[in-house]
């Protein structure tokens, strides 16, 4: 089922909350798919294409998204405690008010991402790219930032976000 068919099905059955928990969807193409409110708990989406996908309020608890393409994706208010986004492309993604507590974001590309009011507590951002990211009012308690690229305007968030 392609994204077009999937999105039509979601329009026809808006009351259904898709349960794709613990599925192996690695290397799948969900570009522009509407996965809002979907249960993706424990799902393996590694190497998948989720470019511009809608994951608003999706449950991504313990999901594996290694090297996934989430560029331009809508991830507002996702619940993703312990998510693995190692080397993920989140360039320009909207992660406003996302729960990224204990997330593995090593070497992830978060350039231009909106992380306004997101919870990144305990997350590993070593080697991550954060240029031009919006981290205003983000919770950044006990994060790891060694080797992260935070040059340019992204430095302003250190003043606004509180302790690191």
TrEMBL record:
Pfam name, any one: Pentapeptide
Source organism, top-level taxon: Bacteria
PANTHER family on file: BTB_POZ DOMAIN-CONTAINING PROTEIN KCTD9 (PTHR14136:SF17)
Name used for this protein in its record: Pentapeptide repeat-containing protein
Species annotation: Dictyobacter vulcani
Lineage of origin: Bacteria, Bacillati, Chloroflexota, Ktedonobacteria, Ktedonobacterales
């Amino acid at each position: 089922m392609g994204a077009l068919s999937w999105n039509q099905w979601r329009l026809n059955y808006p009351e259904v909350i898709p349960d794709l928990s613990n599925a192996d969807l690695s290397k799948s193409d969900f570009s522009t798919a509407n996965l809002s409110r979907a249960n993706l708990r424990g799902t393996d989406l590694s190497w998948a294409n989720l470019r511009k996908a809608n994951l608003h309020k999706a449950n991504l608890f313990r999901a594996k998204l290694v090297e996934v393409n989430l560029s331009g994706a809508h991830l507002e208010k996702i619940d993703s405690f312990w998510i693995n986004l190692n080397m993920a492309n989140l360039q320009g993604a909207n992660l406003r008010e996302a729960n990224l507590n204990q997330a593995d974001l090593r070497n992830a590309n978060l350039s231009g991402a909106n992380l306004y009011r997101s919870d990144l507590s305990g997350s590993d951002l070593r080697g991550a790219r954060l240029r031009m990211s919006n981290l205003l009012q983000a919770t950044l308690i006990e994060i790891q930032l060694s080797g992260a690229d935070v040059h340019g305007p992204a430095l302003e968030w250190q003043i606004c976000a509180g302790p690191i």
